[in-house]
Structure formats: structure tokens, C-alpha cells
Write a structure and sequence with these properties.
Largest sheet: none
Number of helices: 21
Number of strands: 0
Strand content: under 5%
Order of helices and strands: HHHHHHHHHHHHHHHHHHHHH
Shape: globular
Structural class: mainly alpha
Number of domains: 1
Length: 426
Amino acid sequence: MLPVMIVVMIVLMGLSVPVAVAIGLAGVAGTVGFSNLPLIVVPQQAFIALDKFPLAAIPFFIVAGNIMAAGGISSRLVDLVESIVGDVRGGLPLTCILVCMIFAAVSGSSVATTYAIGAILIPAMVRQNYPTGFAASLQATSAELGVIIPPSIPMILYGVSASAPVGDLFIAGLGPGLLIAVALGIFVIVWSRLYHQPVQSEEPAKEFMPSLRRASLALAMPVIILGGIYGGVFTPTEAAVVAVFYALIVSLLVYREMSLRDLATVLRRSTLSSAIIMFIISMAGLFSFVITRAGIPAMISEWIVTTFATGLTFLLAVNMLLFLIGMFVETSASIVVIAPILAPVAMRYGIDPVHFGMIMIVNLAMGMITPPFGVNLFAASDVGKVSLHRMVPYLVPLVCVVVLCLALITYVPMISLGSLYLLGIR
């Protein structure tokens, strides 16, 4: 049954049918063709998949990220980071990485980060004589931090799908996110020196304090949100609501760079993005129900355990599989479909479910920057007005840097779990 459902899904996606529809029709095929269940099961399971409180955080984080992009918060973060690293060779690329890391600490979305930061920094890097393909590729790769640095929409999806605590996942994401940011930073410094890129002309010492004052409210946002979650003041879902109200107050009343007319546009864009993700979740829930009812996850689990002798070989195989899946299937859909199957198997090997979640999320996040369906690539290409084939030569070494980081995250669990031990959660 599973091979037929997968073939149906792949054929439909090959015919340019939207991912959510392809997954849903594959689930319907399994429901009617193999399970002999009435069609009423389809809407029932679609609703059950969405009837989970943590999922309410997704639309709120999307709204918060879009408000940040439209309300002047992102531009102030760029100014602040530029004032710090402006006198370093490769300062603008470093600015891109650091701002994406800070912006990711609230938005939870890599695509929102690409548009918000890329619209400012891609043209700036091009003006400083960086190749357009390099600027767009770096922006797409740095924006990947949006789903690794907490809070993160994929972390919420994994937590719901694999029954893992979302708060622990948020804390665990700090280590991998910082590791990737540092590795990318080292890469761009070396690259800039090799290719003799210029040092920026700004004087950071004179600009730092004014930039810090202008960005203080923007910097306070991740502190309030993440501090509230880790301090037990509110849940991740409640934190998403706080993020929206904070972004609204700062953008409308303090910075005053967003009008009510702009807010209507932001809400419309956020509604469309949220609807797409929720539709994927509902259809993936139906797909998971059908294969679970047929006992397929248990069979896959037994096959994996008998095929791979150790957790190390299992993780290697999982990384190879997820890398391929991430290239062709949207990240949210991949997590919702695959996590319920692989997470229990990982636990049988003694792998912590939170650690395994970081492996899944970092790996599938690379699908956002790998052809043919990397959403960050398309977003950066759109912002930078550059074709994908001009980005690929610069993209390959950046992907290699992230792959090396993934290897460390996979086989050094303390990179993910260390922050949990430091806070006394483990």
C-alpha cells in the first residue's frame, strides 16, 4: 500500500500538483483503495491533525515575522550589526549572517527572513562589489537559521508529530543555530580575504551607540519572547501571541513605519502563508493515519532495527534519506509525515527525541537551499533579481559548510542537549 501511495504522491507532484493536494490525494487513495474506510474519514482525520493547541503558534509567528519586516525592525537590526562588524573584511556578509540569526529569534520562518533581510542586504552587498550570485546564495543560506534558531515553526511541527516537548526543542535549537552561524561567519571571512573583497568604509565606533539606541526595542523582542518561554511565564503558543502584540506596538506606535493599510497587507500575506502550512499539516495527518492504521510504521521500524546494527549507522542512513527528501518535498510536509515514523525508531536506538528532532530539522532545512525546490533560493532569487544558475556555484560551498555542521550535530549530541543540561532541564 505504501509504495502505491508514494508513487501517487510523486506522480502528482511531478505534474505540478501542489504538495498538500498531492499528499491528500495519496491519503485518499490509501483510504479508499486499501483500507476500505468510508470517505467521511478524510475530513475527520484532516480536522484531527489540526486540533492541537501548539499549532496555534504557527500563524502568530508568521504574522509577527511579517510585521517585523514591514515595521522597520529588520532595518534597525541591520544598522546595529553593520556598526559592529563594518570594519572587518567581509563585514557585509557577516552582517547578513548575524542579522538573520537575530531576526530568526522571533520570526520562526526562513522565507520571511529571506525577504525581510535580503531586501536590504543583497543590494548593499552588490553595491560593495560582491557578486550578485554570492549575495543571494549567502542570504538564502543564512535565512535557514530562521527554522533552527528558536522559536521555529518546524520545531513546533516536530514536537506535535513526535510528541516531543516544544519548549525543550526551542532550547536545544540554540546550539545548532550558533554552530551554523559561526561556521558560515568563518567561511565568509576566509572567502572575502581570498577574493580580496573590500572593507566597509563606515566607522563603527562612532555609529555604534546611536545604532544600539535605535535598535534597542527590536533587540528586546527576542529577549522578551524567549525569556518568557524559558522562564515559564508563558507557553510557546502564548509567546507567539505576545510577539505579535509587541511587534504591532513597536511598528505602529513607536517606529511608526507601518500604517493600518500596511497592516492589512501583512495580515493578508500571513493568512495565505498560514493556510498553506495548515493545509499541508491536515493532509499529512490523513496520510499518516492511513499508513499507521495499516501497521506500516511498525514494519518500517522492525526493518530498520534489523538492517542497521548501531545508532551511528542508522543516523547516517537517516541523514542521507532526509537530505534527498528535503530536496523534493516541502519541509513542513516532510516533518509531519516522517517524524511519527522515524522518531520512535530513533528512541529504540537510545537516541534522545529532542536531539533527533534537531537532526531532522537541520537536515530538512537544507532542502530550502538545495535545488530543485529550495524555497529560500527562489525567494533570494526574487529579491536579488538573479537567476538560480548564477547562484549555484556560490551555493555549493555554503551547503558543504552546513553539511559539516550537520555531521557535528548528529554525532555530538551535547551540541543540541548541552543547553538543556545547563538550565537543569535534563
